[in-house]
Design a protein that fits this description.
The protein has five helices and five strands, in the order ββββαααβαα. By secondary structure, the protein is α+β, with helices and mostly antiparallel strands.
């Protein structure tokens, strides 16, 4: 029977997006839902978001992992990946990575979500019907 590689598991969320990660030590590539992360999140803006924990922890190239992402839009998913990766690094070595992630603000959950639509109004959360003047 093949021996399983040891990994660190963590999850993150942002808006409606949810991300889980299996983080492994060593050289390898990050994948999201079976695709390379560079292909799933194309462009420099997304790359800057999901790489923040690796840059803050000075550990680029030391880890690889697999992400499963569901819900939300691409930016929310990238921010959920960022939180999951930061939490996984803290689980790996709390004494080293927790102060670095906390200082960079990567462990704080941004809990803002879209406000729900109220009944009897005109389609949006706070839009009201115009009242007659006379």
């Amino acid at each position: 029977m093949a021996r399983q590689k040891k990994y660190i598991w963590a999850k993150g969320k942002r808006k409606e997006a949810r991300a889980t990660v299996r983080l492994f030590e060593g050289k390898g590539a990050f994948t999201v839902n079976g695709q390379l992360i560079e292909k799933y999140f194309p462009g420099e803006a997304f790359s800057a978001i999901y790489r923040q924990p690796l840059v803050a922890g000075k550990c680029e190239g030391k880890f690889w992992g697999r992400f499963v992402v569901k819900g939300g839009g691409k930016k929310g998913q990238a921010e959920a990946v960022r939180l999951a990766l930061a939490r996984a690094l803290v689980k790996y070595n709390p004494e080293v990575y927790r102060p670095l992630m906390r200082e960079a603000g990567l462990l704080t959950v941004d809990a803002r979500v879209r406000e729900r639509r109220k009944a009897g109004q005109m389609g949006r959360a706070r839009k009201k019907k115009q009242s007659p003047k006379r």
